[in-house]
Amino acid sequence: MAPFGLMTAGASWLAKSFSVFSCTSTLARCSSVLSATYITPVKYLSSQASGPPKRPVSGYLRFLLQQRPDITRHFPGIKSTEIMRKGAGQWVMLTPEQKKPFNEAAQRAREQFKVDLQRYQALLTTEQFQQETQARMQRLTKRRSIIQKRELNTLGKPKRSRNSLNIFYSEHFLDARGLGPQDKMKSVVQDWKNISLNQKQIYTQLAEDDKIRYKNEMRLWEEHMVEIGRPDLVRENMLPTKRKPAAKAQTIKKGTKKVIDTVKKATASKTVRSK
């Protein structure tokens, strides 16, 4: 069980954070919360009874999940992003001793997760194990793709150019017929097929202009990426050209041959004179 001084400090901090309960009630509530967090056995749940064990959360997320009901009760209608922000602010203010119960519980959960995962994998057939591995790789690839997309958005990568149908779709989607998004999409596509060639030519020209916009913005963006040391985000054909090592070696070879020929001529002339 956590020390009494630790629980008192946590209670005092929560009282200042929310400013809704008296010091006595806050102390009792916080003391019970920290104690339960420290001694409650960790449970490992999965979305399916026959599926793999669920990966445990970190100590920070354990704290955030514990504080979420209190935050939503004291701030009705609060958004999830604001809950994360308030919880993160409270976590930062905790001392290492106050964070210790959550981190220790997370560590025990990770150790138990490894045991449960090995036990689960031992029951799989070779085909099932390969399917699980493939599914895990697909999830990892998708996660990496999401992270890369967020990074590119943060770095301000220009949006790709749109074709004529996409431009027409974006302009007419809100006024399209149908109740759901799929019905609206079908009606817009049908309207696109029914318009005249002259009307389509307008959107074709807009698409060509958008290609020019994208090309110019990408050129400036890639130049900036090279300047800040991120050439890995630049297309290969847009990287600065470098002199080939083979051409340099050939130049040196020609120069060396020229020097050798000069030395040979000078040696031959000295030999003739000595005779």
Automatic annotation (TrEMBL):
InterPro entries linked to this entry: HMG_box_dom, HMG_box_dom_sf, HMGB
SMART domains associated with the record: HMG
Subcellular location: Mitochondrion matrix, Mitochondrion nucleoid
GO MF annotations in UniProt: DNA binding
HMG box domain boundaries: 53-121, 158-222
Entry GO CC: mitochondrial nucleoid; nucleus
A Pfam cross-reference name: HMG_box
DNA-binding region listed in the record: 53-121, 158-222
Subunit structure: Monomer; binds DNA as a monomer. Homodimer. Component of the mitochondrial transcription initiation complex, composed at least of TFB2M, TFAM and POLRMT. In this complex TFAM recruits POLRMT to the promoter whereas TFB2M induces structural changes in POLRMT to enable promoter opening and trapping of the DNA non-template strand. Upon metabolic stress, forms a complex composed of FOXO3, SIRT3, TFAM and POLRMT. Interacts with TFB1M and TFB2M. Interacts with CLPX; this enhances DNA-binding.
Protein purpose: Binds to the mitochondrial light strand promoter and functions in mitochondrial transcription regulation. Component of the mitochondrial transcription initiation complex, composed at least of TFB2M, TFAM and POLRMT that is required for basal transcription of mitochondrial DNA. In this complex, TFAM recruits POLRMT to a specific promoter whereas TFB2M induces structural changes in POLRMT to enable promoter opening and trapping of the DNA non-template strand. Required for accurate and efficient promoter recognition by the mitochondrial RNA polymerase.
Descriptive protein name: Transcription factor A, mitochondrial
Lineage of origin: Eukaryota, Metazoa, Chordata, Craniata, Vertebrata
